[in-house]
Amino acid sequence: MKAIQNKDQRGLVSFMITLIMMLVISLIVIGFTQVTNRNRREQLDRQLSMEAFYAAESGVNAAASIAKASLLTPQGVAAQTTCSGSKYPATPLSINPSVGYTCVLVTPNVPSIVTNANPLTSSIFPLVPVDSAGNAVTPTQLTFSWSTAQGTSATSSGCQTYGQFPKNDASYTCPFGLLRVDLMLGSGGGGGGSAAVFAARTVTLYMQPLASGGSVQTINNFSAPKGLIVGSQYNSTTKTYTATVNLAPAAQSNQYYMRITTFYRDSPRIVIAGTNAAGAINFADAQAIIDVTGKAQDVLRRVQVTLPLNQYTSITPEGAVQSVAGVCKQFSTYSGYYQSNCP
User: Fold this and answer.
1) Between the CA atoms of 203, 132, 289 and 244, what dihedral angle is there, to the nearest 10 degrees?
2) What is the pTM of this model?
3) Most CB contacts within 10 A, which of 101, 169, 284, 285?
4) Could you tell me where the beta strands, DSSP code E, fall in the chain?
5) Where are the chain's structural domains?
6) Distance between CA atoms of 330 and 23, rounded to whole angstroms?
7) pLDDT tens-digit readout, 125-159
8) Which residues of the chain carry a pLDDT beneath 70?
9) Which residues face 296 on adjacent strands?
């Protein structure tokens, strides 16, 4: 007699279905867990990044305070080229959680001076050429590059030809401003500080954006002529205009003062660089570069700023006469008669 085998596999099928569903549910839970952890980590990273940024800003402010205080000392602003330097020490701001700035670098002799100007204000600063070691040198060439105002198309279209100066803003179609640079010898010459001496040691340069081409202007000396037009050339790659000024031996010095303003248009970024026979030069006493790295736990943020040292802003008056109160200009007139209608 044969034994009857039970071939009912419904229990096995149910077990397999349950196993598969548990596997799918586990994968879904793991996926949600990973998404939650990733979102939590991103949120933590954003928070730590903000803390590291604020720590770097604190380091910038601390270094700026030290640099400005050292301006009054004979040594001037000290440089710091390594993170382990003691002149601008790295400082922890919080132990738990770990937050602070871990590296402060200060460069008091900058490769170029970056400033801005507009028709109503001007930038005034010393121009002290030095080499990479901070030793005084004399420049043979200065270059000025400037950009358009934010939101303005940077193109040479509409710029004038050499020597043309429209009488008002409405007639000026160039998107770039016209730079006026007053360059004054800062040492030598004698004669005290009278207006006549300052005038004899100052040359004014009008750097005009040209529709095409450009020229290099040479300052032979500071006696005459007092006003020079510099034909500036458009660079289609950098979207800037550049003016080049050569300094003849009689015009070379180890210290100048410079005042920059513009006509017609604002110039939010003006870069001044220089060279001599040995190559590119640096500038001291006008600006310093402060580079600080902030850290919050394992997140780093780096902030670099340009600190004005002996740089000032001058407001250009809008008129020869200004009144602190309203001026009434109402009157009636006809042949042989005049009457004021003011109260």
Assistant:
1) 30
2) 0.76
3) 101
4) 91-94, 99-107, 113-117, 121-130, 141-146, 178-185, 202-209, 216-219, 227-235, 240-247, 256-263, 267-276, 279-280, 282-284, 287-296, 299-308, 312-315, 331-334, 337-340
5) 113-285
6) 91
7) 999 999 988 899 999 999 999 999 877 888 888 89
8) 1-11, 187-193, 317-320
9) 99, 299
